[in-house]
Amino acid sequence: MKIALLGYGRMGKTIEQIALDKGHEIVLKVGKNTKNYDITLADVAIDFSIPSMAFENIANCLNNNIPVVSGTTGWLDKFNDVTALCKKKKGSFIYASNFSIGVNVFFKLNEYLAKIIAHLNNYQVSIEEIHHTKKLDKPSGTAITLAEDILKHSSKDNWSLNVTNNKNEIPIASKRIPDVPGTHAIKYESAEDTIEIKHTAHNRNGFALGAIIAAEWLVDKTGVFTMKDVLDLK
Ligand SMILES: NC(=O)C1=CN([C@@H]2O[C@H](COP(=O)(O)OP(=O)(O)OC[C@H]3O[C@@H](n4cnc5c(N)ncnc54)[C@H](O)[C@@H]3O)[C@@H](O)[C@H]2O)C=CC1
Ligand SMILES: O=C(O)C1=N[C@H](C(=O)O)C[C@H](O)C1
């Protein structure tokens, strides 16, 4: 496949390495100083850029009928606009807050645990995410997905960043520590015990490999998809 990389930072570079190893070609590397590029050179685009540019990058692909995979977090206020544009253009789009296969298994585990705990009222749930200090958004997109999946099965009505006195909210603690690729933990605490599940990324290869697998899957599809569709984890 001919791949356009929209964003050539930590993730863009990791994706390039794995894509080349898998026999793909990188035809475009778009960074903040790239002007007037021709996205139609690519079979598929992979966007790991910055929250403020993700919508523009994705819309450019859809307007030019190029399938697009986006892993950029922190832009989801525009998700419905992307969905509408994708439908209008009969395009192909996939977004995941986390493309790693391990995290997608962890998402299933989180939902399963939330379903079980929903019937018990003595546990207090909380989420913790830890990332490197260069991360622009908080909480992480993955922590938001985890919270939203818990909310589907809970009597709580929202999540909140950091400590909350509101018992109807799931608190998410965001920690920033140099060089941490991404750690997420969900804790259920009662007076008697604690149940905790945790995913720790050792490096960025899992995110990058998942995004390439998603791109390979997406090229001959039409519609808006998630990583659950790719991995058949529904
Ligand atoms: N969904 C997932 O599995 C994962 C998502 N991410 C997300 O991916 C994004 C990128 O992460 P990193 O690579 O670590 O960040 P980074 O800061 O290393 O790279 C972002 C790159 O985007 C470039 N950029 C700025 N304006 C641009 C524009 N208009 N078009 C294209 N590129 C532009 C920057 O120059 C920079 O090189 C973040 O939002 C992060 O949260 C990161 C890892 C996994
Ligand atoms: O910025 C990162 O690095 C990561 N961002 C994603 C997120 O916000 O969830 C995924 C991963 O944890 C790494």
TrEMBL record:
(S)-2,3,4,5-tetrahydrodipicolinate binds at residues 132, 141-142. GO terms for molecular function: 4-hydroxy-tetrahydrodipicolinate reductase; NAD binding; NADP binding; oxidoreductase activity, acting on CH or CH2 groups, NAD or NADP as acceptor. The active site is at 131 (proton donor/acceptor), 135 (proton donor). It catalyses: (S)-2,3,4,5-tetrahydrodipicolinate + NADP(+) + H2O = (2S,4S)-4-hydroxy-2,3,4,5-tetrahydrodipicolinate + NADPH + H(+); (S)-2,3,4,5-tetrahydrodipicolinate + NAD(+) + H2O = (2S,4S)-4-hydroxy-2,3,4,5-tetrahydrodipicolinate + NADH + H(+). One of its GO terms (cellular component) is cytosol. Transmembrane segments: none annotated. Keywords: Amino-acid biosynthesis, Cytoplasm, Diaminopimelate biosynthesis, Lysine biosynthesis, NAD, NADP, Oxidoreductase. The keyword DNA damage does not apply. Residues 102-231 form the Dihydrodipicolinate reductase C-terminal domain. Pfam families: DapB_C, DapB_N. The keyword Repressor does not apply. GO terms for biological process: diaminopimelate biosynthetic process; lysine biosynthetic process via diaminopimelate. NADP(+) binds at residue 29. It is found in: Cytoplasm. Pathway: Amino-acid biosynthesis; L-lysine biosynthesis via DAP pathway; (S)-tetrahydrodipicolinate from L-aspartate: step 4/4. Its main location: cytoplasm. Residues 1-99 form the Dihydrodipicolinate reductase N-terminal domain. NAD(+) binds at residues 71-73, 96-99. SUPFAM superfamilies: Glyceraldehyde-3-phosphate dehydrogenase-like, C-terminal domain, NAD(P)-binding Rossmann-fold domains. Its EC number is 1.17.1.8. Homotetramer. Belongs to the DapB family. HAMAP family: DapB (MF_00102). Catalyzes the conversion of 4-hydroxy-tetrahydrodipicolinate (HTPA) to tetrahydrodipicolinate. This is 4-hydroxy-tetrahydrodipicolinate reductase. It comes from Lutibacter profundi.
